[in-house]
Specification:
The protein is an alpha/beta fold. It has 13 helices and 9 strands. It has 2 domains: 136 residues, 3-Layer(aba) Sandwich (Rossmann fold), CATH 3.40.50; 104 residues, Alpha-Beta Complex (UDP-galactose 4-epimerase, domain 1), CATH 3.90.25.10. A 7-stranded parallel β-sheet has the order 3-2-1-4-5-6-8, with helices on both faces.
Length: 283
């Protein structure tokens, strides 16, 4: 039995889709807060179990009988360690044999502000005694394609990443990696640094937007504070504007670059190119 948390999210849905090509639906379960959103999984024969990160007791039932668990990191920044701990503690109590966690690229050394909660979660997993595998995911290419409408509207792509190179990959590729790990033997103790094979700068990303859209979209590099102010002016909340600006500064210092090619090696095929993901976003 494999249990997936956060399965109705964007990454989780890709994971389930991939797993269904490898194992019977009856051997899969999703732990979700909103069971209505998982009705399509249930229709395919996947078990749907209620669990809430903020109700620790719900996880013992959700993980009952689970051999392997994929803990997809919570989207609630600032609450992640507490929420993840609820799953980790339940995994220990219920005798889970392998706990896989979607962490962040180079979590142990990353300068990104986002990395701290991942480091704390990894530490909690390692001290729990539950056999684990870390899936340290780089950025999703979709994180950048989400900015295309604004770039087209404003006539420029803004950021503070300088010439930093970004080894992003498509969500479906990270999901495939998780599915491979969950259905393979001898994964306990492994730490995967997962990232795209071909990196790009935001200047190159803007140039590709220009090429594919037919509109001239330059990349405008700003100081971090100026970029944060621009995001605030665009209506983003303070914490998110600060997070995005901090992440871009991290990019400028190499925080999202990796050339180890562990992702493509793990899934055994060529990755979806960032240009293809960009094209899909424009269609």
């Amino acid at each position: 039995m494999i249990v997936i948390t956060g399965a109705t999210g964007q990454l989780g849905r890709h994971v389930i889709t991939s797993l269904l090509t490898k194992v019977p639906a009856a051997s899969l379960a999703v732990a979700v807060r909103n069971e209505e959103k998982a009705k399509d999984f249930a229709a395919l024969g996947v078990q749907v179990r209620y669990a809430d990160y903020n109700q620790p007791a719900s996880w013992d039932t959700a993980l009952q009988g689970a051999d392997k668990v994929l803990l997809i990191s919570s989207s609630e920044i600032g609450q992640r360690v507490k929420q993840h701990s609820a799953v980790i503690d339940a995994a220990k109590r219920t005798g889970v044999k392998l706990l896989a966690y979607t962490s962040i690229l180079h979590a142990d050394t990353s300068i990104l502000g986002l990395a701290e909660e991942h480091r704390q979660t990894e530490a909690a997993i390692q001290t729990s005694g539950v056999p684990f595998v870390m899936l340290r995911n780089g950025w999703y290419t979709e994180n950048y394609t989400a900015s295309i409408p604004a770039a087209l509207s404003l006539g420029a792509l803004y950021g503070c990443a300088g010439d930093g190179r970004i080894s992003s990959a498509a969500r479906e590729d990270y999901a495939e990696a998780a599915a491979v790990v969950l259905t393979s033997d001898h994964q306990a103790g492994k730490i995967y640094e997962l990232a795209g094979d071909i990196a790009f700068t935001l200047s190159e990303f803007a140039a590709e937007i220009s090429r594919q859209s037919g509109k001239t979209i330059p990349y405008v590099n700003l100081p971090e504070e100026a970029y944060k102010t621009a995001l605030l002016d665009a209506g983003l909340p303070e914490f998110l504007a600060e997070l995005l600006a901090n992440s871009d500064t991290g990019v400028s210092k190499g925080a999202l670059f990796d050339d180890g090619q562990q992702l493509s090696t793990l899934i055994g095929r060529q990755l979806v190119s960032w240009e293809a993901t960009l094209l899909a976003a424009l269609e």
